[in-house]
Amino acid sequence: MSKIIGLFFLILSTILLSSCNDNSTGVTHGKKHTITIAGSTSVMPFIEKLSEHFMVDRPMFRINVQGGGSTAGIMACLNKTIEIGMSSRQLKQGEKVLNSITICYDGISVIVHPENPIRELTLKQIRGIFSGKIKNWKELGWIDRKIDAITREEGSGTRGSFEDLIMKSEEIYDGIMVQDSNGSVREIVATDPYAIAYISLGLVDDRVRSLSIDGVSASLVNIRAKKYKFVRPFLFVTNGPPNKIVQTYIDFILSVDGQNIFKKEGLIGI
Amino acid sequence: MTKTNFTKEHFVKSVLTIFALSSLLFLFLIFIFILFEGLPLFHKIGLKNIILGFKWAPTKGSFGIFPMIVSSFLVTFGALVVGAPMGLSCAIYLSEYSGKKMKMFLKPALELLAGIPSVVYGFLGVVYIVPFVRNYFGGSGFSLLSASIILGVMILPTIISISFDAITSVPRTYREGSFAMGATKWQTVYKVVIPSAKSGILASFILGMGRAIGETMAVIMVAGNALKIPTSILDPLRTLTSNIALELAYATGDHRLGLFSTGVVLLVIIMILNYIANFGMKKKVMK
Amino acid sequence: MRIKPRLVDKIVRVCLNLQALFTVGILIVIVAIIFIKGAPHISLGFIFSSPEDMGRHGGIFSTIIGTVLLVLLSIFLATPLGVGTAIFLTEYTKESVFTKIIRFGVESLAGIPSILYGLFGFIFFVIKLKMGWSVLSGVLTITIMILPTIIRTSEEAIKAVPRNLRIVSYSLSATRWETVKKVVIPSAISGILTGVMLSVGRAVGETAAVIFTMGSSLRLPTSLMDSSRTMAVHFYILAREGISMEKAYATALVLVLSILLINIIAYYLMNRMISKYS
Predict the structure, then answer these.
(1) Interface test with A, best of C53, C133, C180 (most A CBs within 10 A)
(2) Cβ of C253 under 8 Å from any chain B Cβ?
(3) Is B5 helix (H, G, I), strand (E, B) or coil?
(4) Would you say residue B1 lies in a domain?
(5) Does the pTM of the predicted model rise above 0.80?
(6) Exposure class string for A81-119: b at 16+ Cβ within 10 A, else e
(7) Which end of chain C is less packed: N or C, by CB atoms within 10 Å?
């Protein structure tokens, strides 16, 4: 019996190893053009959608998309682990060696549970909540109950943009809960009536409610009218100029078709 | 031995030696890599500043992991509070009170419980335990309490099986002697069996602790991951393992080294726990 | 008033009974929830089609393949290495400082949390060796992770083989390897296989070490250098992001059923080997 098992493994591994080609940073595996894209969890769902569209007519392409956060994507790009990094914040000093391409724009929205009666907050109040100075909903006109604030992890582009655009020089309090993706933040706000958090505007759905800040509601109209100022670019970063295969993909993203998909999903085209 | 036998033997021995050395290489690779990457920061920043430091802000130069060390121990003790009484009772029941049928049913049940992936526990924790804690106790639900409950259930199989082994290895003569003196079953268990099995039972608790302190996915999902030391069981907290998982993907330079240093601390804690547990069990055997 | 010992005895008996039922009850509740909420969404289509729209629609086929690839290849690498090491330690060497060091290493590593394997695998395989997020990085990491368990259980199983069997074999002028191959291993096989199945179960449910090394691509892996998801990783992402509760429960059910199946196979193999060789 052990002979049969051994033979089985031998055959299996032969099949698998024969489909493995050289491991140069992934341009061609077998007959497929493989592009690995990683980074911002804000950008990821949209790129996943776009990639599905892209691959429909181009079966020789294989696009691997994964999250990890903007900084993770930028790091992976610097390490040449991946071809394209996704970022939802501007590049910092040491990262500017990378080639960056703006693919669309997105707002940052402060969200609460649909049952929360509060519809708007001032910038100062939001800063107070996330810096830990305002701890109870009664200070904002609701019931006597602790505020369950949630922030993203340090490497998040959304957090980086939130800190740049909204917190400015105030630090986010370290007693606040941390989650490592837009999706998980949204999930918590959708289930906890006393939660408040910030996520990508494009990912707001009907399970959470977006707040107005200083009287301006977070809508695409207000963003285009430059009234809602909390907007950040979504970037693709590459290490050096993109090769032909990667460029084909980038061209699609920047094309009318690609941009239309962004717009349909609630983002701002370039 | 014929000549072909001799070369064959030699060949086999060489192959096995290569296998053993390769295994060694792999095993020590991870060991040495973590130590190699994790120790320099202790030298650069100082052991005290890291282990007793209160602030973890690695991009700004603070590598204090004390709050996370405390949080790791808190969830571990919480897990024991939840899991040890239940586990020990189950082990006693299994060994002293249950019939063959119950045993046949319980043992596979325990193994299945042990096999359920931690992410499934974490998920059920988020969907059921977190709202329960939020609605009946307060806070956001993502808390030390929720993490303790989930981890307590997760370490049950460990505690039950090792305590069971310890209790069943108490010699029958001990029990018979006790019955001969007119003691009831419970008196026997309480005054004779358990004290004899004490070190094995304690070892099971310590191994349960080792399992709890190393758990990552379930804790990330239910503990809230806040950086401060919790001041109540309803506060969110971040353990050493969660911290590594949350920051691994984007940490570079000293920040990355800081995660390895966290890994070294974890390694040391777990090795100490394992040592205590094994020492305890050996003591029992020698008795 | 002193309570009669017999009464205490009866009360305790009832309490312990309840306690045991409660513990079993937890298991039943867990499995029941997953079954009730997941079963309606499982179909042949679910098993054989890949995820679409980030997992909102479609099935889990690519993740099943990812899991199978990861586990089979890891077992394929770790079992010969682990069993060979165990044989080497017990049959081919004398007790020495060298063997003590190896045993210490194996014991310590058996308790390492999986996130540390993820940390190691990510930095060493994905970044430093430039393998990227790939099945290969995942396999190498998981192999190292399950190696201590296989070595330890194999060693225990081999040590449990009675010395007499070996002595008899040698007295019939068998060589060392012949003895090992025809006498020791067959007697120890049930213990060895138990260790292997234990490792399979662990690898199937593993998330922390896998997500950082194999990545989380939704596509079907076509080569070892492709990134891919395992069922456990897919489940974690579905559940955490709130992408689809139904698909999450369904994936959890497939996971739990797989592990149940692995446990059953392990029992079957163990019993078969015991009856065959004892």
Answers:
(1) C133
(2) no
(3) helix
(4) no
(5) yes
(6) bbbbbbbbbbbeeebeebebbebbbbbbbbbbbeebeee
(7) N
Do residues B28 and B64 both lie within one domain? no
**CATH code of the domain containing B98:** 1.10.3720.10
Residue of C nearest to A6 (CA): C76
In CATH terms, the fold of domain C44-277 is MetI-like fold (1.10.3720)
Q: Please answer yes or no on whether C223 and A66 come within 8 Å at the CB atom.
A: no
The 10s digit of each residue's pLDDT in C158-193 is 888 888 888 888 888 888 777 778 888 888 888 888
Q: What is the pLDDT of residues A184-209, one digit of tens each?
A: 999 999 999 999 999 999 899 999 99
Considering only CB atoms, which chain C residues are within 8 Å of B263?
116, 119
Domain that holds residue B277: 56-286
- Mutation target among A27, A34, A204 for the C interface, most CBs of C within 10 A: A34
Split into its structural domains, chain B has a count of: 2
* B152 plus B30 within the same structural domain: no
In tens, the pLDDT along B246-277 reads 999 888 888 899 999 999 999 999 888 888 88
Claim to verify: residue B174 and residue B41 sit in the same structural domain: no
Q: Take residue C214 and report the two structure tokens written for it.
A: 């194999």
Determine the Cα–Cα distance for residues C8 and B243; give it in Å rounded to an integer. Answer: 48
**Residue A24 pLDDT grade (very low, low, confident, very high; cuts 50, 70, 90):** very low
Report the gap between the CA of B181 and the closest CA in chain A (Å).
Answer: 56
If asked whether residues B64 and B12 sit together in one domain, one would say no
Q: Which residue in the block uniquely carries the two structure tokens 């060392």? A: C176
Is A192 in contact with B247 (Cβ distance < 8 A)? no
Using the beta-carbon criterion (under 8 Å), do A194 and B140 form an inter-chain contact? Answer: yes
Regarding whether B106 and B195 lie in a shared domain, the answer is yes
